[in-house]
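Service request form, structural biology core

Requester: graduate student, group of Dr. S.
Request type: structure prediction, single chain
Budget code: on file
Notes: please return the result as structure tokens.

Sequence provided:
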Amino acid sequence: MSDNNTITVVGGGLAGLTAAIACAEGGASVTLYEAHRTLGGRARSSAEPYVADDGPHALYAGASLRWLAERGLAHPIVTPGVRELRRVRFRHADRVIGRPPLSLFRMIARRGMTAPVDEAFGQWATRHFGAEAARAVGGLLGVVTFEADPGRLSAAFVWERFRRVTALPPQARYVIGGWGRLIGRMAEHARALGVRIETGSRVDRLPDGPVIVATSLDAARVLLGDETLRWESGRAVLLDLGVRRERADLFLVSDLDEGGFLERCSLSDPTLAPPGESLVQSHMPMRAGESKAQALDRLERLADLGMPGWRERVTWRRDGVANRRTGALDLPGTTWRDRPAIDRGDGVWLAGDGVAAPGLLGEVAINSAVSAARAALSARPRVRAA
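Core staff response, request fulfilled:
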């Protein structure tokens, strides 16, 4: 399937396409294999007229967004403005309120603090800010951890995400037309650089030559036969709705009680739903031992609170479970540096959102892919001579 003059990329999601582009820009011949018939991985979007991503998706201001923007891949994007921010609400004590509790504001005021790596966030935050504030932050971060109990995670890991989510101005950016459009632009750019892309091509053994494995850790573990390729990840139920639009509908509800999240994506991007309708995407982190039906009941309760009467307005619906595919979660005593290393030796590198690279959600995939590409490019002469 390959030779020492070609860098092979296994996986055609965000990480795989990033790696392929970076390698091609470095002058390499690149072949990318994707097992599915379509590219995208977790960055796929549903077909029109309801264009829903596979769970809440956003680009965050930073190096990864700049990498995409420098290549003309990120735009068009939209930043939530005053219209959207005025329609943000919070669920607290099972009520929908316009402002988060005062204890959360106190934490935001002290967001410059440094949190320890080796202590659980719940313990650290309770000691400094109180139990109510610690629980509220845990709920607020359900959208970026997909974890029902962020309090058990490393305080440094959770605090970094809290600082990103509460930054002003807001750092979240939304891709117009859904992430499927982003993947389409990346694929077109990769092909223009000479990348050979083969979809519907499952790789069951490592090809010869330099290889970047840009799959889930579970798939990489099987392909590489390496049982050490494991790391904590989240589990959440997803619910996407098409509903007849009403002027009173909110833009976003952050569930400080249970970590859920509900967003009317089409308010900032009307292309995601047919005229007169709204696309609403929501998720709820699943508790240990909880079934999909139980978690979905809790998520529908959030929808009842944040979007009254939605059941009578539904025009389209889909639901599912995101299990171990929502990014790395660092436990106390660990950081991103302790995750599975990008360099696996023998001309093999890993890329994805569960490996040893910094960032928030998709940023980890992009950062690890760029690092893997640089290493593969620099190793080519050595690999060819072997």
